[in-house]
Amino acid sequence: MNAAIHVQELVKSYGRTRALDGLDLEVRTGEVFGFIGPNGAGKSTTIRVLMDLLRPDAGTAQVFGKAPAEGGPALRARIGYLPGELAMKGPVRAGDHLQHLAALRGGRGRDRIDALAERFRLDLTRPLRTLSKGNKQKVGVIQAFMHEPELLVLDEPTSGLDPLLQHEFLDLVRERAAAGATVFMSSHVLREVESVADRVAIIRAGRIVDVDSVRGLRERAGQRVALTFAAPPELAAFAGVAELHDARLDGATLSGLLRGAPDALLKAAARHEVVAWSARDRDLEDLFLDVYRLGAAGAETNGGRDAR
Ligand SMILES: Nc1ncnc2c1ncn2[C@@H]1O[C@H](COP(=O)(O)OP(=O)(O)OP(=O)(O)O)[C@@H](O)[C@H]1O
Ligand SMILES: [Mg+2]
């Protein structure tokens, strides 16, 4: 499958701040790809390079096989872009603004403005400058989607949208993905990306520290397990269970993080009288919080490090 986005060794500094520090990324055609990381990680910088709003210091970026700087209007026409910071001022009405953008695209998408505005409950007669943050965001979403582009590049698309409209937005992403579009979206919140994304990349300090499918992440996140015995066992009895991490004993209850098959743990437990047990999938959000907390060393801990 061809790559819709291909980024290699991208470096970008603002003065002394190294915003991108050798970033590699590949987004396949037709996939929904989540781009997650903390504030200042370099998400918007990456996206601006893809949109040719910024030129990198080193490295290459390609969108549909073309460098953003060389793709020109023909490449731009295939992309719907939602910036992270929308500058929407002035007395022009939201509807006129969107009509104007459609005209710039040769009229493409003009006939979808009303339906999208209705779907997102946007009053098209309101002047842009009077719109609340969330309503401005709706204008941004509509202009990105209305011409049904092959590639959507969305920088924190749900920011400012209320929960109902966040769902509406995710439905829209699913619809476009089902129609064959590629979606690249940044977010701070794994939970929203989790339900739509095929794959997720985690960016930290200008580098990708992890890329995996949502399912792969979930498997690696593991399960929190707890076993209560009739009498306190020796913790050492479970030392040989390689899949059990962070094992601890509270009275007669053994708990820990299980990554992998439960067989060895169950066999070790079965040598004692088990009176209660529980196992629950660890929240992916916890996994991400670890990544956020980790230092640059996080890059080497992929899959290896124990985590709460
Ligand atoms: N125009 C600029 N001038 C100077 N430094 C900048 C500029 N834009 C970004 N930076 C710095 O580059 C780094 C990456 O910023 P970027 O906006 O790409 O992060 P981000 O991942 O989008 O963060 P957020 O989640 O807050 O949107 C940060 O340290 C930021 O302070
Ligand atoms: Mg940003």
Give your account of this protein's structure.
With 308 residues, this protein is α/β, with parallel strands linked by helices. The chain folds into two domains: 3-218, P-loop containing nucleotide triphosphate hydrolases (Rossmann fold), CATH 3.40.50.300; 223-281, 2-Layer Sandwich (Alpha-Beta Plaits), CATH 3.30.70.2470. It contains ten helices and 13 strands. Strands 5-6-7-3-8-9 form a six-stranded mixed β-sheet, sandwiched between helices. Strand 6 (151-155), helix 6 (163-178) and strand 7 (182-187) form a beta-alpha-beta unit. The longest helix is centred in the middle third of the chain and has 16 residues, at 163-178. It is elongated. The two termini are 37 Å apart. Mean pLDDT is 90; it is low at 295-308. Magnesium ion binds at residues 43-44, 84, 155.
Number of strands: 13
Write down the CATH topology of the largest domain: Rossmann fold
| Uncertain regions spanning at least 5 consecutive residues | 295-308
Helix content, binned percent: 25-40%
Report the total helices. Answer: 10
Which structural class do you get from the secondary structure elements?
Answer: alpha/beta
CATH class of the largest domain: Alpha Beta
CATH homologous superfamily designation of the largest domain: P-loop containing nucleotide triphosphate hydrolases
Question: What are the distinct ligands in this entry?
Answer: adenosine-5'-triphosphate, magnesium ion
Radius of gyration (Å): 23 Å
Strand content: 25-35%
Strand order of the largest sheet: 5-6-7-3-8-9
Helix-strand pattern: EEEHEHEHHHEHEHEEHEEEHEH
Largest sheet: 6 strands, mixed
Tell me the span between the first and last alpha carbons: 37 Å
- Overall shape: it is elongated
Number of domains: 2
CATH-scheme architecture of the largest domain: 3-Layer(aba) Sandwich
Average pLDDT over all residues: 90
